[in-house]
Amino acid sequence: MTTRQRRVLVTSRSFGGGGTDFAAELDAAGYEVVRASPAHDLEELASLLPDADGWIAGTGPVTAAHLELAPALRVIARYGVGVDKVDVAAAAARGVVVTNTPGANSSAVAEHTVTLLLAALRGVPAADRRVRSGDWSGWQARELSALTVGVLGLGRIGRLVVERLGGFRPRVLGADPWVPADDSIFDGIERASADDLARSCDVVTLHAPGGQTVVDDAWLAASDRPVLLVNTARADLVDEDAVAAALRSGRVWAYAADTLATENHGDGASPLLAPDLADRVIVTPHLAAQTREGVDGMGSMATADLRAVLEGRQPRHPVAP
């Protein structure tokens, strides 16, 4: 009797896109690798999930309906840290292990955060557009060292952002209700609440896990100065309509993000993509984690955990339901 070759479904767009070919590693270890769209469309996956033993999943949803199609599935290795789109409870009920890749791209996201912050602070994209149209007129900006920066969320990425801000020497406030007051992070920054950040900061960068809106009309109204907002975390942390209105009124100085709640164009586009806001809004298409090092880190962790489960070992990064 011939043993069926174990099949790994890969729906992560960047899997193997760094410096290491993890698909080739899986092939050499005896696995069949099948790729599909990161959208996780049920119709597309209907012919692939029934024979999948493992799934290296991207940012698309993994629902109970997907799991219904996958009777042989034993592991979902989420390619990234967020599992909010994975029905972890439904997976556990079927005996499917879910893993993720915590910390693999933290440094990349922290660097991108500071990149967006500085680009927005100095108006770099708008300046480039003006020069290309023949306009060499300038404007006065601010130096980061003269500002107060609020960091909302002091997990891996938030802490790395604090570390990278150190060279610029701004005043830094950190807000995270889950971090105790005696944590060493507060040896170098001031402890604050989310509301304190609204009242006291020139710049606020968001690194909370999502699931609730923090920056809304009330939060924006509490500010006593125009604020620069940076969001490389989750789109739902921000009420985009409120921020668009605050940009027009001058309450928000600039907005820079790696994600939007609505990623459509035309009539369905985010209000933050309105043409009149283009000089003060910077948006990148989920680039924060996309460095060679970050991609290789995620690929290495996802592949190792997937193989661990399929080969009868304990994965290093299981996610509890």
Please write out the topology.
Blueprint: E1 7-10, H1 22-28, E2 32-35, H2 42-45, E3 54-57, H3 64-68, E4 75-78, H4 88-93, E5 97-99, H5 106-122, H6 124-132, E6 148-152, H7 156-165, E7 171-175, E8 190-192, H8 194-200, E9 203-206, H9 217-221, E10 227-231, H10 240-249, E11 252-257, E12 281-283, H11 292-310
Parallel strand pairs: 1-2, 1-3, 3-4, 4-5, 6-7, 6-9, 7-8, 9-10, 10-11, 11-12
Helix pairs in contact: 5-7
Mean model confidence by pLDDT: 95
In one word, what is the shape?
Answer: elongated
The strand line-up of the biggest sheet is 8-7-6-9-10-11-12
Largest sheet: 7 strands, parallel
Rg over CA atoms, rounded to whole Å, is: 22 Å
How far apart the termini lie comes to 37 Å
Number of helices: 11
Stretches where pLDDT is under 50 for at least 5 consecutive residues are none
Oligomer: single chain
Domain D-isomer specific 2-hydroxyacid dehydrogenase NAD-binding: 115-288
Protein name: NAD(P)-dependent oxidoreductase
Family: Belongs to the D-isomer specific 2-hydroxyacid dehydrogenase family.
Keywords: Oxidoreductase
What does this structure look like?
Belongs to the D-isomer specific 2-hydroxyacid dehydrogenase family. This is NAD(P)-dependent oxidoreductase. Residues 115-288 form the D-isomer specific 2-hydroxyacid dehydrogenase NAD-binding domain. InterPro entries: D-isomer_2-hydroxyacid_DH, D-isomer_2_OHA_DH_cat_dom, D-isomer_DH_NAD-bd, NAD(P)-bd_dom_sf. Keywords: Oxidoreductase. The protein has 11 helices and 12 strands. The model has no long low-confidence stretch (mean pLDDT 95). The protein has helices at 22-28, 42-45, 64-68, 88-93, 106-122, 124-132, 156-165, 194-200, 217-221, 240-249, 292-310; strands at residues 7-10, 32-35, 54-57, 75-78, 97-99, 148-152, 171-175, 190-192, 203-206, 227-231, 252-257, 281-283. The chain has 321 residues and is of the alpha/beta class. The strands form 2 sheets. Strands 8-7-6-9-10-11-12 form a 7-stranded parallel beta sheet. The chain has a 5-stranded parallel beta sheet with strand order 2-1-3-4-5. It is elongated, with a radius of gyration of 22 Å.
